[in-house]
Write a structure and sequence with these properties.
Elements lengths: L2 E5 L3 H10 L4 E6 L5 H7 L2 E4 L17 E4 L11 H10 L8 E7 L10 E2 L10 H20 L2 E7 L1 E3 L6 H5 L4 E2 L6 E2 L1 E3 H14 L4 E4 L6 E2 H11 L7 E2 L1 H7 L2 H6 L5 E2 L2 H5 L10 H16 L2
Parallel strand pairs: 1-2, 1-4, 2-3, 4-5, 5-7, 6-15, 7-12, 8-11, 9-14
Antiparallel strand pairs: 10-13
Helix pairs in contact: 1-6, 3-4, 7-11
């Protein structure tokens, strides 16, 4: 039985585990000892370690045939020291993993002015957060070339699910940009991202990047409007960018400065991925059905 190490134990990782536990021996890297029971019950073997503590990662050497790296970079600095520590640990033993799949972000492209792009677009990170992702990608590519490990990169946009919709934002009446200032945004359902990760373990090419986005072609405020309409909430007020910069946090504004329309032909052709939620409309409708079913009990 092949062994898989999942690094980064969030929501998407749990969705991946449910697809793998019956076919592979899955190890899950956990920093919090309090979560070991839930992951063990779900079918994984917990490995307690911390990507910020290189000494704690020694057990990872030779542990797995395949690695899924979903952990985010640190919150500060220009470099992803966590990925650097992980690669150092994986490379210490005589037995390296055969394949490593890393989940990055479409933020590495920066602002594209609403242009339609694909994976051939040059990287132009405009935030420190995205720059750390580019640093991770470069480090992983170099490591894969040097060691012979097949490294593949999945670039994901805003991840949503039935419990990851902007309901709180809408309830608070937070504003969105007016149409003249609004940006194109991209989305992927958490289940589809999990499916892409599993597919990449089998089919992704070496040193190859894939944009894991759905078929939606929406501006950000239009997305908020569709969620609001579905859940019978007020649509967000539309305001000029100059006003938004005064009322929204720098983090919120960082997502409103970058506009791009990302194509997904490569995941469909090379990873053979069929999206369960091809548009946010499908995902929102499913979320609404789930809420109604929950309320009926």
């Amino acid at each position: 039985m092949q062994k898989i190490l999942i690094v980064g134990s969030g929501d998407v990782a749990r969705r991946i585990l449910s697809r793998l536990a019956h076919r592979y021996r899955v190890y899950a890297l956990l920093r919090d000892p309090g979560r070991t029971i839930e992951w063990r019950v779900a079918g994984a073997t917990p490995v307690l370690a911390d990507l910020d503590d290189r000494a704690s990662l020694q057990r990872l050497s030779g542990l797995a045939d395949l690695v899924l790296h979903l952990a985010p970079p640190p919150n500060a600095g220009r470099n992803d020291t966590r990925t650097r520590n992980l690669l150092a640990a994986l490379g210490k033993g005589k037995s390296l993993p055969r394949r490593l799949v890393y989940v990055s972000t479409t933020g590495v492209y920066g602002d594209c002015g609403g242009a339609q792009i694909d994976e051939t677009r040059y990287l132009n990170p405009e935030s420190a957060r995205a720059a750390r992702r580019v640093n991770a990608e470069h480090g992983l590519r170099q490591w894969g070339t040097r060691t012979g490990v097949q490294v593949s990169i999945l670039r994901a946009p805003g991840i949503y699910a039935s419990d990851r919709l902007p309901i709180e934002r809408l309830t608070k009446g937070m504003p969105a940009l007016r149409e003249a200032d609004d940006v194109f945004t991209n989305h992927i359902h958490a289940d589809d991202l999990a499916a892409a990760c599993v597919a990449a373990l089998r089919l992704a090419g070496a040193n190859r990047a894939y944009n894991v986005v759905d078929d939606s072609d929406l501006r950000m405020a239009d997305y908020f409007d569709r969620v609001a309409d579905a859940f019978v909430l007020p649509r967000p007020p539309r305001i000029p960018r100059s006003e938004a910069e005064k009322s929204l946090s720098p983090l919120q504004m960082s997502f409103m400065r970058e506009s791009r329309r990302i194509g997904n032909a490569r995941i469909k052709k090379e990873l053979k991925l069929r999206l369960a939620y091809p548009t946010v409309d499908v995902g929102i409708a499913e979320a609404l059905r789930s809420r109604r079913n929950a309320c009926s009990f």
